[in-house]
Structure prediction request, 414 residues.
Amino acid sequence: MIMSTATQESDSVKQAVGDLAIFGGTPAFKNPLHVGQPNIGDHKKFSERVNDILARRWLTNGGSYVSDFEERIADISGVAHCVAMCNATIGLEIAIRALELKGEVIIPSFTFIATAHALQWQGITPIFCDIDRQSHCLDPEQVEQLITPRTTGIIGVHLWGRPCDIDTLTEIAARRGLKLLFDSAHAFGCSYQGRSIGGFGNAEVFSFHATKFLNSMEGGAVVTNDPELAQKFRLMRNFGFSHYDQTDSIGVNGKLNEVSAAMGLTNLESMAEFIAINLGHHKQYQDELAGLAGLSLVPYDEHERSNYQYVVLEIDEATTGVGRDQLMNILHAENVLARRYFYPGCHRMEPYRTLYANAPVSLPQTEFVAARVLTLPTGQGVTPASISGVCEIIRMVLENASEVRKLLDERVPG
Prediction:
């Protein structure tokens, strides 16, 4: 039986499979539950900062809030240099340019499309590498096999806040004379072997997009311990200007504005609270979904720091009797906007689908994981009561899989 109790939920009761919204019942939630709904810190403090920005009429171009935000990010990440950007995609593009990458760069296909686009946009060929089935991150053994004379770099992607095999990738890059960049969009506030994510490789790129647990509305940052590289980042994000009327390099407009930095600073003050909420939600999902055959919750290493911002399910249809996409559609009908990440993989999106028509054959683990993963709502906007409601829907569906499949099949035309 499912009864909604929180203010964001309806008071509908589901006593049978036929009561599910996909079969005509009332949705369990009046308002949608989102994956990545923005966390927002102290509204009053943010308003005070915005009022100060307006009073001083300094809205962008290296204001004090951006400088403060960079200092805080560098401190948390344990790095010498942080260069804030208008978003992480521009951050990736600038880091790629500053590192003088060219030819071919090895990346996972199981990542957000921006990782590939940031290369392709600059005439660099992304070489899609398969992932490790357990970590969902680059498989270093496969990376080694893809290195050619045209390879100039590797971009590792930390997924769900869980780092990839940094040590092995670092060793490969050093031995083969390659640059190593990390797309750390998911991993701010996380650690690898007790060391904060941020100081590995030549540089790392964070995202502070609204969907991330720590957001600046829009925003990103490139962090590094290399002072010369950091200077390149600073020049490139401001059209290459080194002085008022002098450019020393090619560049773009990648600057973070003061209001976004104010949001970032405000949310940093609530960062511990956001992480505690995410951890509590993750444990609740873990407890309430325990024992469901064919369904597993991707775990976090308790010995490392994490932001716990993603609740990731793997669904084995052969065991559950209900496929990932079917479960997603059922949840969507209930206003639970669960999401497939990173479906169907970059190699199956344009322009890469046309450029690399045979890629699926060489990416079996990517194909396997992309067909199974489903992320569930979490964050500040989700309540324990709503999580219980979501888990009860999932449990009802899986415990009545045969009936659910029969009813779903009856809905298919012709």
User: Anything to note?
Assistant: The first helix runs from residue 43 to 56. The radius of gyration is 22 Å.
